[in-house]
Amino acid sequence: MPISPVLSGQATYPFVRLNQAAAARRAEGLEVIDFGMGDPREPTDPRIIEALRNGVRERMGYPAAVGLPELREAVAGWAERRFGATLDPDTHVIPTLGSKEAIFSFAQVVLDIAGGRDTVVLTEPGYPVGVRGAQFAGARVEELPLLESNGFLPDLDAVPAETWHRTALFWVNYPNNPTGVTAPPTFFERLAALAREHDFVLASDEAYTELWFDEPPVSALQLDDWTNLAVFNTLSKRSSMTGYRSGFVAGDPTIIAALKQFRPNVGTAPQEFVQRASVVAWGDEEHVERARASYAEKRRLFLELFRRVGLRDAGGPATMYLWVATPSGVSSEAMATRLLENGVIVAPGAFLGDSGEGYIRFALVPTLDECRSAIEILEGVL
Ligand SMILES: Cc1ncc(COP(=O)(O)O)c(C=O)c1O
Fold first, then answer.
1. Which domains does the chain have, with CATH numbers?
2. What are the pLDDT digits (tens) for 48-63?
3. Ligand 1 pocket check: which of 39, 42, 171, 177 to mutate, most ligand atoms within 8 Å of Cβ?
4. How far is CA 9 from the centre of its chain?
5. How remote is the CA of residue 240 from the centroid of ligand 1, in Å?
6. What is the spatial distance between Cα 353 and Cα 335, in angstroms, rounded to a whole number?
7. pTM of the model
């Protein structure tokens, strides 16, 4: 039976190994505290849940790909308040079913392989979905390393001229998963200028703009010129709504028009009751401030632990992640395995990309009490 070679050639998701080890521990009745995956466990605000319930009708037809006008207006209102960016709800924004599916399929919307635009550029270590989507779309994939020596920003000067000519799509993700760093406005300005010069699409995955601990991170929507720009955001992390699947793409009207044409083929419009809940979520900041305060407290406790035990926090000031350097000579997988043997799951940096070797990632999703228990365990192990 024919199976896509891209699919059959895919390595087993490396986290499977860790998940199996964790399951074995649980089967023995031992406790496991899971800092592995970034799935928030903060409760969703009751007003959002109520809007979802009230949005269910006796008959629900197919949702339209363009989304409800109320949702596009709520997103535009949020972008204006948060970034001072003025989105036209009709031409600058389209809702998505969370951002994962939109990130995955975006290469299909943009690539022109026969026309010589066959390359998707991404950064590593990173969220793997952009690479997978590019591979399924038949793209040539180039990954730029995020190195601590360069502030975990890609070295744009190291990109060969040939790559710029072949690039259809360039993905960046700031605040960054897994390193937690934010990008300065000058970085977005330079990359956006390159996108206009070489006529590729700059895709800015901004899933973590709302999880910050010193000052609010910038968005590419704060650029003066949105030509060739697509910004992806989501309620998953901001509002602890991973299960709802609700996000949006905003930016260049030509890209939004292309998405309006593409997305009805796929059937990925969010359900209307989810859209109604999302209107409430984008309209409220109080629940976001509460979540931020909760992450900040967990972060503070862990950073104190790292100082006490002499581990180096190598990460930046945002996201739910802590990016921690392993002691010299200890691989990220060896360290994660040792912590798992003591009941604490973390992600080995090498699982997120070659340049992630030498680091482990904590996703601060367990409860504050679980974090305290984990800190007690780690105090004895590290
Ligand atoms: C960098 C990054 N982008 C996008 C997403 C996708 O989030 P969602 O599909 O829940 O909106 C994630 C999820 O972990 C992520 O880490």
1. 5-43+286-381 (3.90.1150.10), 58-282 (3.40.640.10)
2. 999 999 999 999 999 9
3. 177
4. 24
5. 12
6. 16
7. 0.97
